[in-house]
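Tutorial, part two.
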Amino acid sequence: MKIEMMNHTGGVKAFLSGFSTEELSAKIEACKTGECTCECDPAMMQKIESIDLVSVDGGSTITITGDVNAQTLAPMMQECLLGEKQ
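Running the prediction step on this input gives:
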């Protein structure tokens, strides 16, 4: 399982391998509602306008739109999705 992130116009795009789209969708929904088991930053979550998840060959692509950048989101996503603290 790994995450590759990059900034793009209006937000962040990430490619995740080793997850099913269903698993990711459930984890993302838990973070959106504040019911996640990791330490999501509620202030960061409020900066996110939308999260689009698409299944692609070898993994999934997440496009996060809002006032966010890859450097800030990467540690949170590592912890929340992979269970790894940075």
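The helical segments are 21-33, 42-47, 70-82. In part three we will examine how such features are distributed along the chain.
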